[in-house]
Amino acid sequence: MRLAEFLASVPPGVEEKIDELFKKREPAYLNAPNVSLLGLDIEIYCDNRKCKGTRFFYAISTPQLEFKQYLNYNDVYLDYWCRNCGQSKKTFALRVTRGDSSSNDGVAIKFGEMPSFGPPVPSRVVSLIGPDREIFLRGRRAENQGLGVGAFAYYRRVVENQKGRLIGKIAEVAKRLGGSPEVLEILEQAARETQFSKAVEDVKAAMPHALLIDGHNPLTLLHSALSEGLHAKTDEDCLEIATSIRVILTELAERITITLKDEAELKQALNNLMRRGNS
Ligand SMILES: [Zn+2]
């Protein structure tokens, strides 16, 4: 693995062997290596509103490293700026360790990075889960790091805490789509129900078709993922289930937002989708 790939794709706390991590000074009068970063761009997500996507970032400077007989590692900060907007910065803190002085290869591990590691969380999900945004983000971080039990526990808390809010949003959609008073009454009552399994059961008949995911009721999917996760044996099983919970929540948020958009925008979105499908 090369340093650029390591910085972009490996979460904090994971040690990796890096090829060509160091670059010798020319002339190598002190035989002290330099991190061979300068000029090497990395590709990461830029949150600036001008970008909102994966962009190239460049390193402003390369730290000078000094290795001693009794200390074969250096702790360094690396600053990167987005080449596209020039306004977002990404900072990594890492430890780089040298094996033997004749080789340019080494080992790196991140202490952390700001903004934090991982793909961005769509703002629609954040607005769907509201007050539990922070817990959801923790779940996302745990998921990124492969911590299945942790990710599952965080997502479960989000769904259980926000079930009333989710059903409330579903009721909004039903109302917008001209749902009958009976349907709206069922949804409003379910939003107040404290037992999730009871709420899911009650909502079954009242779920708007526009919110079905591949023909399935998203609340039923969430509920069965939560029940399954409680009995999952391994961290890997939990991770898989946690990922499904996140994907369903994201999809539900997308569908709710799209349905609540006004007619013109919806029409435009559909036109765009058709065009894509035809191209
Ligand atoms: Zn940018």
What can you tell me about this protein's structure?
By secondary structure, the protein is an alpha+beta fold. The protein folds into two domains: 3-114, no CATH class; 123-278. It is built from nine helices and eight strands. The chain has helices spanning 3-9, 123-129, 133-144, 148-176, 181-192, 196-203, 218-230, 235-260, 263-278, and strands at 16-18, 22-24, 33-35, 42-46, 53-59, 73-82, 89-98, 106-114. A six-stranded antiparallel sheet has the order 1-8-7-6-5-4. The chain has a two-stranded antiparallel sheet with strand order 2-3. Helix 3 crosses helix 4 and helix 4 (148-176) packs antiparallel against helix 5 (181-192). The chain is elongated, with a radius of gyration of 24 Å. Bound molecules: zinc ion. Zinc ion binds at residues 46, 48, 51, 55, 82, 84-85, 88.
In short:
With 279 residues, this protein is α+β, with helices and mostly antiparallel strands. 47% of the residues lie in helices and 18% in strands. The chain has two domains: 3-114, no CATH class; 123-278.
